[in-house]
C-alpha cells in the first residue's frame, strides 16, 4: 500500500480525485486505481496517464447507493451490474471520499430533477433579450449567475444535511458514552464535546439560512439590475444618434454658410485645405472676359499673366488632331474569378509578434493575400493608360504635365478597398501584360532582388510613350497600423516631344490592424518633374482626419513652369476623380497661412474633369474588390515564360479557393527559394577559395561563415531581362530593360529561365 500522503484525494474545483483500492477478483484482490469524481460521475483508471484515452469504468451517482462496511471499506452500486467495492488507506481518507460522494450524489440528483421538471425555465424564448447590442448575451449571463448561486446554495444545503446527519450520529455516540455514567474528567470531556457539536450544528444552520436570504435578495434585485442595464443601453444609443445628428447638422450649416458667402461675395473663393494644416493656396474664379481687360484694372491684384496661353476659354486641354485608329480587342477576357472563401483568421494573432519588422520578412498565410503577385499589382498602374495616350498628343508640355500628374494619382484608385496583401514574388519571377493589339501597349515586370525585395517594370506603347520603374517596398508594422513605403522612381518618356518625367510614390497606410474593419489611406507629397523643360507639378495627398472639413482622400496640386509661374491647378480625390483649372492670374493676396506667410491666390477658369475612376465590376466585393483589369491579370495565357506569375502554383490554388493546399505549396516554394540562395552562397565561397588558391594564398577556414559572402551572393545575382546600371537622370542604381523578352516569346525560347516553381 502507498503512504497516506500519496493516496490522499485532492479537490480541484468541482472535481475530486485520488488513489483508492478497488476489489478486482479473488486472485489479485484489491488493486490501486486512480478515481476521478466530476459532474456527478465517478470514473476510474489504472494510472493517471490513462485519463486522456482509456476509462476503465464509470458510475452515475444520481442513481447510485453508497454504503459503508467498516473503518476503511465502502461500496458504490447503481443497482445494476456496476458495483465497486472500494477500500481507502485509512479512516480519514474514507470519510473524505464518502463526504465528496454524497455531496456529488445530491447535486447530481438535484440537477437531474431540475432538468426533468423545469428544463425550459431558462430557455432563450422565456427570457427576451434586452434592446441594444449584446442584450441577449447579458441577460443570459445574469440568469447563469443566478443559477450558479442557486447551485452553490444547494451545495451548502447538502453540506448542512450531511453535517446534521453526522452530528446526530456523533451526539448519539456521545449519549451512549454518557449513559455509561462515566465520572470525573472523562464525563466532563464528553459533555464538552456534546455542547460543541450542538453549537456547530446551530452555526451551520445559521450559515445556510443566510445564504438562502442572499439568494432570495439577488433574485429580487435581478429585475432591477436588468432594467437599469437596459436604460443605460438605450441612453447610450440615444447619445450616439444625437451626436451623429449634430455632426450632420453642423456639416450642413457649414456648407450652407459657405454657399451663402460665395453667393454674396464679389469674388468667389475656394480654399484648398490640407487637413489640419494651413491652406497652401486659394483659387478664385476668373472673369470670363478677363482677357479683354488691362492688367491695371484686374481686381487690384498685383498679377502675372500666363504669356504662353493662346486662348482663355473653357475648352479642355488641346491635343493634336492626328487620326488614331482604335484597335478592337481580339480576345474575350474573363470577367469573374471564383468567390473568396469565407475563412476566418485573426490578423492580430499573427501580427502581434511582428511589431517593428519588415512586412516582407513576416511569414504570412495566404488567408491575408489576394490571388495576384506584387508584379501583377505593379502592372495595374497601367489601368488608366489612356491618360498617357492623351498626354502623348499634347502640344504644350504644361498640358502634358496635367495628364502625367493625373496618371500618377490614378494608380491609387485601385487600392481603396484592396486590403489583401499581394504575393511576394520569387527571385526571378516575371509577369507580362500584353495589350498591344487591344490598347497599343505591353509591359514586363521581373523580380530582380529578394532582400530587399525589388521589382523592375518596363512598359512601351505604340502611341508614343514609355513607362519604367523599379520599386522597392519598405514596410513597418506599428501595432495599430501598417505603413508601406514604396522606394524608387517612376519614369515616363514621350517619344514625340522627348519630355522625360519622373515622380515617386506616396506612403500607403493600412489602419485597424488590431480591431475594426481594415481601411487604407494614402498620404504624402509627389513632385512630378519634367527634366526636359523644367516644368514641375507638386501634388499633396492629405491624410484622413475625422475632424477635417474637407472631402476624404483629397489631392491638390499646382503645375508650374521652370520659373515657378503657375499655369494649372489640380484638385480631386485619389479614389474617384481629378479636375484641372487653367490659372489666369496669381498674386500674394490671401490671408496669412502657417508661420505668418501669405497664401497664393489663383484666378482660374472653370474646373474640368481630367480623370474619373472606372466603376467596379458586378460582385467585386466577393472577388477581392478586383477591377476589370485585375480580374484578367491571372488569367492563363499561352506562350508566357515559365517564370510568369500566372504559373505560380500557390497563387493559382488560392484563386481556386483551395487555401490549405495553397499554404502548403507556398511553404514549398519559399523553401526552394532558400535552397537556391544557399547554393549561390556556396558558389560564392567556391569562387573565393578558387581565387585564393590560384594566387597561392592560404585558404581561410572561416570563409564559410563569412556573412559578407551572403551579401555577395545577392549582389552577384543577375536579372534575366533587366540590366543593373546607374540611372542617367538621377544617378540611382536601377535595373533597366535590356530587351530580348518579346523576341524570346516569339521563338518560344525560354532556355535561360530559372526553375523557380
From TrEMBL:
Composition-biased stretches (Basic and acidic residues): 644-685
Keywords assigned by UniProt, alphabetized: Coiled coil, Lipid transport, Lipid-binding, Membrane, Phosphoprotein, Transport
Recorded GO CC terms: cytosol; perinuclear endoplasmic reticulum; plasma membrane
Domain PH positions: 13-106
Subcellular location: Membrane
The UniProt record lists the keyword Lipid metabolism: no
Residues in coiled coil: 222-256
Residue segments, region Disordered: 113-145, 287-324, 637-701
GO function terms (MF aspect): sterol binding
Top-level taxonomic group: Eukaryota
Membrane topology field: Peripheral membrane protein
GO biological process: lipid transport
Principal localisation: membrane
Family in the record: Belongs to the OSBP family.
Protein name: Oxysterol-binding protein
Species per Swiss-Prot/TrEMBL record: Mugilogobius chulae
Record lineage: Eukaryota, Metazoa, Chordata, Craniata, Vertebrata
